[in-house]
Amino acid sequence: MNRPVDALCRLFEALLVILLALMVILVFGNVVLRYALNSGIAVSEEVSRWLFVWMVFLGAVVALKEHGHLGTDMLVSRLPLAGKKVFAAVAHVMMLYATWLLFSGSWAQVVINREVLAPVSGASMAIFYGAGLVFAGCSALLLLMQLWLIVSGTATEADLSMSQESEEMAQLEAMHLDQSQTFKKR
């Protein structure tokens, strides 16, 4: 089951690159056109906003898979393995509930705004709210897979931590891991 999830996350990462490139082109092109030719791309701001929202939701799925969200585990890290498993299972159930709330709210917005057209592009506003549906579906799948690992007892201690303390700490740990592997080779 990990291969399809890894492939989906790689697809999302490629989409993130494409979306960011499109945003840069639209915004930069619009700025240049405004200052150089006193004109602009009317749809640029609207599409850039939509691309940004989709980037955030797709990036959040990738971060969830890679345990990249920021958090703290000051209390949980001091518990024995059984306590960590209980807290991880409870956290996953709570995250699944929050995901359900996001899904149901996004679904309601998609249904309400299905016929509503964006002011400039004329596209359905359901596309905008669809990002929440994609995130909720993907994150529910990831959370259920991780919850199964915890409940079945196959989760490692690293699988029990769903977050990183900070980006700097993650980079420092990666650097120490690289150095320790270099010393082992010698």
The secondary structure category is: mainly alpha
The SSE string, one letter per element, is: HHEHHEH
Radius of gyration: 21 Å
Q: What is the CA–CA distance across the termini?
A: 36 Å
What is the secondary structure topology, with strand pairs?
Layout: H1 2-37, H2 44-65, E1 69-70, H3 81-112, H4 126-152, E2 163-164, H5 167-185
Parallel strand pairs: 1-2
Helix pairs in contact: 1-2, 2-4, 3-4
Describe it.
With 186 residues, the protein is mostly helical. It contains five helices and two strands; from the N terminus they run H-H-E-H-H-E-H. It has a two-stranded parallel ribbon.
Summarize the structure.
It contains five helices and two strands. By secondary structure, the protein is an all-alpha fold. The chain has a two-stranded parallel ribbon with strand order 1-2.
Which tags fit this structure?
two-stranded parallel sheet, 186 residues, 2 strands, 5 helices, mainly alpha
